[in-house]
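Sequence, structure tokens reproduced for reference:
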Amino acid sequence: MKSFSLSLLVSCCLSLLLPACHSDVAGPIFCVGDEDCPEGLACADDVCRHPCMTSEDCPEGLQCLSGYCHQSCSGDSDCPNGEHCSSGYCEPDQPEDGGPGDDGGWTECQDEDGDGYGKNCERGDDCDDTKRAVNPAAYEACHDGIDNDCDGEIDE
């Protein structure tokens, strides 16, 4: 009985000391394969989505469409940052191919992982241009030891 009480006490204390992992940046998580997506999501059309059989399988506010959960919308303002309304559902904005150069002209976007972030990209720089799921619009995945959302903090 003492070991159970001690483990419960340790668990409670750790939950008070460790900050909750969250992200305040909404937007699509781009991917090449399922391994780029947080646990429970799958890569569909280059974006991490919840797989589903029916809309009951989806988080609140999302509907099942072609095996994946989508947010319905009537206009772009109904969609999260980095997405637009298309045919009644939020879809990710496509990355731009370049950005403003030092001379005021347009320069080539250097995006090694295809997430729309990189050197000279309109969306901005990428803190890890080798992992498509790591960029300033990504959600922070808890307990993976990676700064997923490029804010300089790991697992916050």
About this structure: The helical segments are 2-17.
